[in-house]
Amino acid sequence: MNKLRLQKMANEVRRGIIAGVYAAKAGHPGGSLSSVEIFTYLYFEEMNIDPENPKDPNRDRFVLSKGHAAPGLYATLANRGYFPVEDLLTLRQSGTHLQGHPSIAHTPGVDMSSGSLGQGFSAAVGMALAAKLKNKIYMVYALLGDGEIQEGQVWEAAMFAGHKKLDNLVVIVDNNGLQIDGRLTDVCSPYPIDEKFKAFGFHTICLEDGNDFDQINYAMQEAREVKGMPVVIIMRTIKGKGISFMQDQISWHGTAPDDKQYAQAIKELDEVGKILCQG
């Protein structure tokens, strides 16, 4: 793993998120920013993918079950070469291929349409089962929000995945502690998350800092060694990570920055970029 390379790319992904949401005057920056490191690691380090052949039947699959974090996925796909980075400025606009939630019919690199919380996880489980039935070796990764796991469908999918021993499935929970209506523990606490997944037959990995590439790398190495059961990685992250005034603020779940806030966010990212270039 080239940590500095990943850090530089993560900064570019954050820039893409802010630029897209600002241009659209709508979107979900908070949960997109908290997920940047896992997006970056998966697409630039972990997954077997080819932007030149996005429908390769042997590719690894990724499902953004928390589909409102689409700006983060789009910024990652653009920087990975699936479509021009300039397209990010068309987010949510009429006629764009970058809709408010991921659409498999419109966007290169999107493996499943998502947005109705809980359903993406079920689709990922189906993909993993299909690989087993067809004797394929591809992996399936699914990113869930910690608020999303309040949905009952999530646990139906988890029960099925554990029962079928889908060891080609890696589930990642973005545990940033905030959701649209408030703090996770105030709305409907799902804790202890790891024990719940264990009860359904998952191998569980907990990260104290899910925005740290070293910890993500360690978790993915552990996940690769697990046989006979699916894996869940529960990552403690910071909502709005990387933008000082957005961090750990509920208000930035689904709010676009105004002109002044946009300028401040880009300034902060530029400063980070300069520091990384000195590394």
Automatic annotation (TrEMBL):
Which cofactors does this protein require? thiamine diphosphate
Supply the name of the protein.
Transketolase
InterPro entries given in the database record = THDP-binding, Transketolase_N
Positions the record marks as coiled coil are: none
Please indicate if the UniProt record lists Manganese as a keyword: no
UniProt xrefs under Gene3D superfamilies? 3.40.50.970
Q: Give the Transketolase N-terminal domain ranges.
A: 7-265
Q: Which family does it belong to?
A: Belongs to the transketolase family.
